[in-house]
Amino acid sequence: MLKLYYARPSLYARPVWLALLEKQLTFELIPVDLGGQQFESDFLDLSPFGHIPVLVDGDFHLIESLAILDYLEAKYPQFPLLPADAIALAKVRMAQFVSLNELLPAIVKLVIPGDNPAETAYAEFRANHTLGFLENLLGDLPYFADEQLTLAELVAGPLVDMMPRLNISLTDYPQLKAWSERLSSRPAWQQVQLSPEEWSSFIRHMRVMPKIWQRRRRQRMSALS
């Protein structure tokens, strides 16, 4: 059976979780406590960098969410999540990479604002700029590949869904707002949705994670020296 090592709020693990649900695969969820369990030796044997998600499929295990998504698409083609058309595929890949490379860093900065108002203002600009790009890329289609739900939705959807909770309104992006609401109504998405309590816990966790990583980094460097 497929096994997914994950943390429920993780923005890297949730696209893989959604892919497993949307493909209607049988799998086991194995939670990882990001308060330190990701640095334990048993987990580092699976994920040498201490990152989630990790997917185990029989004797094969792999890390990195985008690699896992491509593996699932190739190995389990039922309910396909990538289009065959070249333009549609390009739009899907653009939405994936722009979401991870532009929107996600902005989210992290908004969750952990720091002491520099200029950096927070830039994060807000970066988030809105990315939302505008996705709005134009989506156009008046129901999904980035027209009628087909794709990996673009799985990657971008959880990030866009967070925007109102970070005081970034989707009002100026009506197509993207309708798209996000359409995703939220799907059974798979309702399973991974965070409750208000989980959201508050996620925010607290994100704000202490840099200190945890710094402490663990020093410990690992000392062990290697």
**How would you sum up the global shape?**
globular
Strand tally is: 4
Order of helices and strands: EHEHEEHHHHHHH
> Radius of gyration, Cα only, in angstroms?
18 Å
- Describe the largest sheet: 4 strands, mixed
Give the CATH level 1 class of the largest domain. Mainly Alpha
Mean pLDDT equals 91
Distance between the termini: 40 Å
Number of H/I helices: 9
Q: What strand line-up does the widest sheet have?
A: 2-1-3-4
The chain-level structural class is: alpha+beta
> Level of helix content?
55-70%
Residue windows where pLDDT falls under 50 for at least 5 positions: none
Give your account of this protein's structure.
The protein is α+β, with helices and mostly antiparallel strands and 225 residues long. It folds into two domains: 2-79, 3-Layer(aba) Sandwich (Glutaredoxin), CATH 3.40.30; 86-190, Glutathione S-transferase Yfyf (Class Pi), Chain A, domain 2, CATH 1.20.1050.10. Helix content is 59%, strand content 8%. The protein has nine helices and four strands. It has helices at 13-22, 41-46, 65-75, 86-111, 117-138, 151-162, 174-184, 187-192, 196-224; strands spanning 2-6, 27-31, 54-57, 60-63. Strands 2-1-3-4 form a four-stranded mixed sheet, with helices on one face. β1, α1 and β2 (27-31) form a beta-alpha-beta unit. α1 runs parallel beside α3 (65-75) and α4 (86-111) packs antiparallel against α5. The longest helix has 29 residues, at 196-224. The protein is globular, with a radius of gyration of 18 Å. The protein starts with a strand and ends with a helix. The model has no long low-confidence stretch (mean pLDDT 91).
